[in-house]
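Re-run requested by the PI after the first attempt was lost when the workstation crashed. Everything re-entered from the original request form. Ligand of interest: zinc ion.
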Amino acid sequence: MGAVRYDVPEPDAFTRPYWEAAAQGRLLIRRCGRCGRAHHYPREFCPHCWSEDVAWEETSGRATLYTWSTVHRNDLPPFGDRTPYTAAVVDLAEGPRMMTEVVECPEGELTAAMPLRVTFRDGSPVFRPDP
Ligand SMILES: [Zn+2]
């Protein structure tokens, strides 16, 4: 058994479809069949109207940058080896706001509302500039 890592998913029965799709390079969200709104992170109930009529939906993978912070120190492995990195909140094209990381972009080139596209690192979604 290797070193403990804090960046890899621990799927359960409910989130397994999400992580299996991510392993195939697809980002899923949940959309409510009653009010029509999408949400993320995945929940079994719609957080807007509490309906249980919620289903998985594949996203376009497009997003815009809402806010970000450069992380210079993180003691949880393997993040310490990655510093500095860009922790970010992005607005998915489908509506939900998502916590993630922006990669392949120098800190000085980050701008609010810049277009991003999902990419996957070790099966987890991160975002890079979408020129
Ligand atoms: Zn709803």
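Saved to the shared folder this time. Residues 24 and 40 are 19 Å apart (CA to CA).
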